Amino acid sequence: MSTVARSPQQEMVQRLKEALGLKRLIGESPAFVEQIRKLPAVARCDAGVLISGETGTGKELIARAIHYLSPRASGPFIPVNCGAIPVDLLENELFGHERAAFTGAQTARPGLIEEADGGTLFLDEVDSLPPLAQVKLLRFLQEKEFRRLGSTRVQKSDVRVIAATNAEVETAVAQGKIRRDLYYRLNVIPLVLPPLRERRDDIPLLASHFLRRYAEELGQPCRDFTGEAMRTLQDYNWPGNVRELEHVVERAVVLSGDRDRIEAESIDLPRPEPRPSAPQPFQEAKARAVARFERSYLEELLAAFGGNITRAARAARKNRRAFWELIRKHDIDARRFRPPEL
């Protein structure tokens, strides 16, 4: 079987995935690829990186990619969710403490900055850091020096810090949640991950990846989605982004039973979706409705004729070239509808 030639952009993304061994870097939408193509250059230096994006867009995955592409790959990667640690414990977690530094400190303990020596410290939800911890973090970023709580001894640690936030960064700075000087130190290289609703063309790729993964893990026979099931996934707004999609597909695999395709009724989504605050203009609404109809019609025809474009075009009473252009317009891969080779 002949293979379709990849574009230089697709080759670059594939090489990156292979180099990382992280097959979860899935997506071909321009907004996503624009960020991915920066990673090799970002990884080669130790400049500050601030990854912003909504919850579930894959900020930690990108941070890991930077680490494992970098000269620090053999060192530790230490992720810290700053929002999940009580405020009064954050400094202790980051910088450690000496014996008797506070009530209950019976032994000395290193902090995460020490544990990450030679590697990367990933600070997620960095806007949750309390003011004093931000001051100490800024000093560490400037001097690579810190003190444990209760100690007068200055220590050094060779650590690259990558930070992330799901807040609007400029707003967080203006509100004082992130110190402006710390922001400038962290934001030398900004990476902005698009939400899933802005990269809908990647939903089939991601959904198919999660389907293969969980079907194998759970020993289920399902290997594909029906056209209606895929349309259900593509029409949803995904407030939880890629993480939510992964959980929905995993649940669908569990609910699919012994079927070899995921049906629409196995796609369990919150309903009804919140309506937009303002109605769409007539032309926009009409264009979306026509696009949904065309895609549904094309997929049903291709499914009926086993992916044979000539026969499907004949049934639609369109010439083959015009039918093929419609398939390209909706980015439909006719090979998905062909029966498996024995």
Tags for this entry?
11 strands, Rossmann fold, 5-stranded parallel sheet, alpha/beta, two-stranded antiparallel sheet, 46% helix, 2 domains, 342 residues, Helicase, Ruva Protein, domain 3
Give a short synopsis of this structure:
The protein is of the alpha/beta class and 342 residues long. It has helices spanning 8-20, 30-36, 39-44, 59-69, 87-95, 112-115, 131-143, 169-174, 180-186, 203-218, 227-235, 241-255, 282-304, 309-316, 320-329; strands at residues 49-52, 77-81, 96-97, 109-110, 120-124, 145-146, 155-156, 160-165, 189-192, 224-225, 261-262.
Strand count, sense and barrel status of the largest sheet are: 5 strands, parallel
**CATH top level label of the largest domain:** Alpha Beta
Strands ordered across the widest β-sheet: 2-5-8-1-9
Tell me, rounded to a whole number, the average pLDDT. Answer: 84
Our count of helices gives 15
- What would you call the structural class? alpha/beta
> Which term fits the overall shape?
elongated
